[in-house]
Amino acid sequence: MTEQVMAAIDGSKFSEGVCDSAAWASQALGAPLTFLHVVDNHPQTVEADLSGNIGLGSREHLLEELSQLDEQRAKVAQEQGRLTLKAAKERAIEVRIAEPGTRQRNGTLVETLEELQEEIRLLVIGKRGETAHQDSGHLGSNLERVVRTLHRPILMVPDAFQAPKTVMLAFDGSKTTRKGVEMLAKSPLFDGIPVHVVIVGAETGDNRSQLDWALKTLRDAGHEAEGAIRAGEVEATLRGYQEQQGIDLLVMGAYGHSRIRHLLVGSTTTEMLRKAKVPVLLLR
Which region is the signal sequence (predicted)? Predict the structure, then answer.
């Protein structure tokens, strides 16, 4: 089974950014590109107690009409999805992607991606989806659930694409972030792109040793690499470094118990992703 770059798209303003980012990743990785659109056919109607002051027959008639409306909405959603996939495919072909694929599935996005994850080398997804408030500063609920469920690298992107010129890895010496260093070192996705490795913590011998290992690994693979150890609150420190250095793409681990990876654990959205204005690659 060929692993591919999979781009989850809908009708949101983030879809163009997803398309362009996925096309860039597909070309850099030399991996096939597939666009995915999921139609959530869960009933929109709520089986409230409508008996009240109307007769049972009236209530049944109303529920029947609501059911018909749901069917109509589903058909419209499927057609909109087909048009979205067609437009995405044409956009990818314009930038010379050979034979981009398209898939439309019924169900929920999270369940669909979980079923397909063995085929996914990299998932590209927007910061928020079609149903999220477009001016919201929060993440889409689908993105949160996908991050917690999928065991594949996830590239979260803003609404406009810009090929990254610099990358920052939030590093803590853990198994996940050490794997991240090794992935960065050998991945064609980052060929020729300078890498910044940042540890948030005290200037200790252990932190310095971890940083030296990361920089040596990257430099031995031919990367231009520099590192820093910064004290402070994790999210604010990383975001401050990213803004000061003009970093185009942030790489970090998605789960764990360290201070950095704990950002993505819990029931609330994380400040790191919520405030990100650049793509964020999440590693498992």
Answer: none
Rounded Cα–Cα distance for residues 160 and 277 (Å): 10
Whole-structure pTM value: 0.83
**Closest-CA residue to 235 (of 177, 176, 191, 275):** 275
Percent of the chain as helix, strand, coil, to the nearest 5: 45, 20, 35
DSSP 16-72: HHHHHHHHHHHHHHT--EEEEEEE--S---------TTS-HHHHHHHHHHHHHHHHH
Question: Looking at residue 192, what DSSP letter applies?
Answer: T
Q: Nearest-5° angle of CA 72, CA 74, CA 75?
A: 65
Q: How many CB atoms lie within 10 A of CB 125?
A: 29
pLDDT score at 43: 47
228 three-class SS: strand
Most confident of 12-16, 138-142, 188-192, 212-216: 212-216
Tokens in use for 102?
């398209």
CA distances from residue 55 to 46, 65, 69, 136 in whole angstroms, order as listed: 18, 16, 21, 42
